[in-house]
Amino acid sequence: MKLPAGALRNQFMNYGLSSFVSSIILGLSFVLWSSLAIAGQQVHIFWPLEAGETHLQVQDQALEFAFNQAIMLEVDDILGVQLENPRREMLAEFLTPKVKELVLSYRELSKKLQPEELVMDLEVNVNRERLKSLLKRIGVFYTSTKTWPYDLTLKGFNPEDWELLSRLQILTGVTVQAEATPHLILKKDTQGFWQGELEYKGQNITQSGEALNDVWMALWARFFSLADVQADFVARYSLATSGWVTTDAIMFFDQLLDKWDREVESHKIVAVNVDVLSITGSWTISTLDRAKLEQKLSEYLPKRGVVFELKKLN
User: Fold this and answer.
1) What pLDDT tens digit does each residue of the chain (314 aa) get?
2) How far does the chain reach from its first CA to its final CA, in angstroms?
């Protein structure tokens, strides 16, 4: 990936990530491919040398940039779509300070010291579970393909606040619509202190703080975790299967469902029955997209002689 303008180089240094790169080299390099790691994201980067710079001097910055790119590739994989700019850029900016908690380890595949640039190929292992949790908290996981409408009441705003609010709306994936639910009330007092209240179906979520972005993120994180909101995004189904050859095959499939995190939000095995003619298994499964789940099941089960039926639960 070609490096963007020089401003991005400085962005990583502002977050103080150089010490993290050193620690990951000295520490995580000894635990590469641990049981916590998953299949890595492969990143190809070019890092141009400025006048007087050496390859050694820019290596940490290049690694930091590569980690950020790997995280965004993992985001694409989790969402199943690539966000459009400027939302994608905003999300990358939001996740940059969290590189330390998201990168598990990395492996250097190749490195070329060109006269005017450093070229590297890396495989970076990202904490997928942690990243998915963050995407849920800020709403991106649920609004990657469709925005959520909400009503807005403001008090004490100035032009600078409007600019930040607009960016926060794009990042979260919400749009203002009169009379929509939820209803968000944001107030800023004369001392610059923020108070927010989110009203949804008789439930009130409140948050206060010195920074608008902190108040905003806290309010929406709690909103997207509400059971009523989850019900609008996630549907529950019963999955009945028959024709299994062994119970081990059923257990393997149950473990496989954990890896289908784009199609399966959660799952629980309900029963396994063994008789002379067939072995059957049933699950409850929650998903954001029935069509994608059904496609995945159709690709896996019939070729193994397993018949399945998917029914929505109330």
Assistant:
1) 444 434 444 444 444 444 444 444 433 433 333 333 356 899 998 878 877 777 777 788 888 999 999 999 999 999 989 999 999 999 999 999 999 999 999 999 988 888 788 888 999 999 999 999 999 999 999 999 889 999 999 999 888 899 999 999 999 999 999 999 999 999 999 999 999 999 999 999 999 999 999 999 999 999 999 988 988 888 999 999 999 999 999 999 999 998 888 899 899 999 999 987 889 999 999 998 899 999 999 999 999 999 999 999 97
2) 47
Residue listed under structure tokens 């010490």: 19
DSSP 45: E
Kindly state the tokens that stand for 129: 């579970």
Domains of the chain, start order:
6-137 (3.10.129), 146-231 (3.40.50), 234-312 (3.30.70.260)
In angstroms, the CA 150 to CA 143 distance is 13
C-beta neighbour count of 165 within 10 angstroms:
18
